[in-house]
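go over whats below:
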Amino acid sequence: MALIRPIQERSGWQRCVLCSFGDEGVSVHLCRYQKRNRSLIWGRRFFFWDMGEREFLSNTRIRLFFRMLYFPFSYRVVATVSRKYCRSSFCTITAPRSHPREYITEQELTSVLSHNLTSVLEKRKREFSHQQGHDDSQSLLVGSRIVHVSVDGRELLQGGLDMKEKRGKIIRIGLFQSFLSRSLFSSFRLSLPRRALWWGIGEDGFSEALSILERGLYEKPNKRSEKFILVTLSSRKSDIFFYSGDSLEFFDTFRFGWRTLYDSLHHELGIDLHSFLPILRSVYEGEASKIVSKHIHTLVEKELARFLNGITSFTKTVSPGEIYIDAGPLSFIFSKHQKLSRWVVKEEDFWFGGVGSNKKVTFSLLSDFVSYAPLRETTPIDHTARKLVRWLIPQSIIFE
């Protein structure tokens, strides 16, 4: 390995693996990332059916796959884990300044972090431990980074920490954190070879909401406090993430997924799973007969009306300023719906940190990589936050 490392460093390309755990199995995407020009090249995709987080350690096939992958070179792993074992969130530390007329300094930001970071992380850790039903020592902090720093609404962190002639009354520091079950992380470590270096772990679906939030913080500062909800469709359910103006986290879920629509068409017309999406595309692109199109449109509209009612009930509770929907494989249907089309996510809704998007991968996949992997240039306040976590949070792992 000592001989191989200089070869990897000269090339400038980092081999990466993105593991996404879902309802039906785990999806493994291969890619290469070059930090110098922020280039990301996606490679092959593998899918292991009926493979959950707990089966990683006991499954011989998956262990052999990762041991042969990229041999003999090292690679980095980013994983999105189900809410059952992982919880990600964003919160804001707010502190009034004692001397608002003076220019803000790095020492002042460090002081704010030192007085508030531990209490915020410990609170989130207790909430996660209570949800898991185990002791605090069984919860690991596996992700923590500063998302934004502002004074009176003026951003300081975009493109590096810029405090030149900045002053104001209120300091706000946005903090992202992820907690994972210790036993699950131990299983991951035992399942992968030593060449596999962990680069980031987060909750499934949360990265999209965080990417939308970062877009608003950096490019729409006048809307940084505007509430929004993000609805993400999976195979069997829809998850809702809610940003309240100060915090972002999972809010609720309801039973509607792309398989809900498939079950309806399968029951009425006998359409099988493999021809489900091709038939729908032919209908919505005007390639099917009028009789077939009318019947399928009626069935689809009936199911989407149920979905719309579910969204409406949530919006009455939280009154969001914006609504975003990631419909996954059904995006081409939602984008043509009379009421739902205005809420379907687009590329300009996300912040990818200068990493170019690719039509071959979904917004969700790219958000997972950008949000959970430590791609951004570190600033002095990032170094301070990492030191505080290492010193004050004993059950923590910092990926670099």
